[in-house]
Specification:
By secondary structure, the protein is of the alpha/beta class. The protein is 43% helix and 24% strand. It contains eleven helices and twelve strands. Helix 1 packs across helix 3 (29-43).
Length: 290
């Protein structure tokens, strides 16, 4: 049984006809037909029945399809891991980072990991959680670091990294800098900077409604950098995850939000086959010390 035979078989399954499968696989239809005929001879029976509308799996075809699909996927994963092992300088470790997750906690871990494994390159892809998870499923990413509002269902595997509280961020000259405690109700009198990509946005709206608090958004942005720059310009205050703020920024100050306290959890998310890879194992071990 050859890998290309399995690939052509799966192409017919996915596209519903030998003609479309051949076009998708960039080979002639006779070559695809011959490869599947050899696979049928090896498995001892026909895998497809054909009619004018296309083709359907036979009972034998339906039986072997899940196993052949699994074999093909695992073979590709093994080849990719072998390539990474032999060409570490050119095949980076691909990490998807949700755009609202800051580097304050993760940056030092990545730096330590690179010291331990200097031959491994990092490729950090910043994006929205839904897009990153799609890339993870398509094997375009090895790991996603995100803050899901609820635990993800299989096949995703999630490892809790840390919990971070939300803070009220403001310019160092703001009156909040004289307070030791800031409640949600204190913010409604201020110009509010609304983070459009906040994953707890709906939860925050519900909390405001429960407490009869109205936050007037003077500015809105889907960029964390822009929100921080607006704070630096003293144009308002924002609710932000504590580790999203730049470290040691003298012009940006913060206090933990009180009454109510709000927090989120940061997870490393991968697929079962990725967790078995040596470089992913080592990275997860480093992240476990957060």
């Amino acid at each position: 049984m050859e890998l290309h035979q399995i690939r052509y078989f799966l192409a017919v399954c996915d596209h519903g006809s030998f003609t479309r499968a051949a076009q998708f696989s960039y080979i002639s239809q006779p070559s695809l037909t011959q490869a599947i005929k050899k696979l049928e001879d090896e498995l001892g029976g026909e895998l497809f029945t054909r009619d004018r509308s296309g083709c359907l799996l036979t009972p034998l075809g339906r039986m072997v399809e899940p196993n052949l699909r699994k074999i093909y996927k695992e073979t590709l994963a093994t080849k990719a891991e072998a390539i990474r092992f032999t060409r570490l300088n050119s095949v980076p470790l691909r990490i998807g980072m949700m755009e609202t997750v800051g580097a304050q906690r993760l940056g030092p871990v990545f730096a330590h990991y690179r010291q331990e494994f200097p031959h491994i390159e990092f490729e950090l892809i910043i994006g929205m959680e839904a897009d990153l998870l799609k890339q993870l499923e398509a094997d375009l990413l090895d790991l996603v670091i995100s803050a899901p509002t609820q635990l993800l269902a299989p096949p995703f595997e999630s490892t809790l990294l840390y919990t971070e509280r939300y803070v009220v961020a403001f310019h160092s000259s703001h009156r909040f800098n004289r307070l030791s405690r800031i409640e949600l109700k204190d913010i409604q009198a201020e110009a509010y900077l609304d983070r459009l990509n906040c994953e707890l946005r709906e939860k925050l709206k519900a909390v405001c409604q429960d407490h009869e608090i109205n936050l007037y958004a003077s500015y809105r942005s889907n960029s964390e950098d822009w929100i921080i720059n607006l704070i630096r310009a003293d144009l308002g205050v924002a609710l932000m995850p504590e580790y999203t703020l730049p470290l040691n920024a003298q012009d940006v100050q913060c206090r933990y939000l009180a009454n109510p306290e709000i927090s989120r959890q940061i997870y490393a998310i991968c697929l079962p086959q990725s967790r078995k890879k040596a470089d992913i194992k080592a990275l997860l071990a480093s992240l476990s010390y957060l």
